Predict the 3D structure of the following.
Amino acid sequence: MLTRHVARLRQFQTARRVALYWAADGEIDLAPVMRLCWRRRKRVYLPRLSGDSMHFAEHKRGKKTVRNRFGIPEPELSAPAVDVDALDLIFAPLVAFTPAGERLGMGGGFYDRTLGSTGGWVLGVAHSCQCVEALPRESWDLAMAGVITEKGPVRPLFRGSAGPAIFNLMKSRQP
């Protein structure tokens, strides 16, 4: 169901370079979105950890992955890292989110440090039941363009003038 909602986003339709993640600890599985990307000839990038840093590296269909220290598959070291500003659309996992678009991650700060200054489209991915009224907010917390759940996109408050456009990019709306 989430894949159908993602496919309707014009930002996804026009994206050529899409950053995804391998699901862990109850996160929404984006493997179907990954397959959709490859069918539509989009380049797929996955996070790769290096110490306290995270980078995105291309993951091609059929290429081997290696498990990082958390047991999560990531591209081999031979896959070159890409600058996050070169990514057209970035999907970020989360533990909880608010209707205002605030995100609570797993606590490692990898996404906050890596994407905090990007101008790219960062969409949180969550189950709808992960929405809460409020979360503690710190200056380093990642601001997202929005959140997408199995029920469709959630309309958060956006930062900057470009933010609200992401949900105007829907081709068709679900009732």
About this structure: Residues 31-39 form the longest helix (9 residues). The helical segments are 2-8, 10-14, 31-39, 110-115, 165-168.
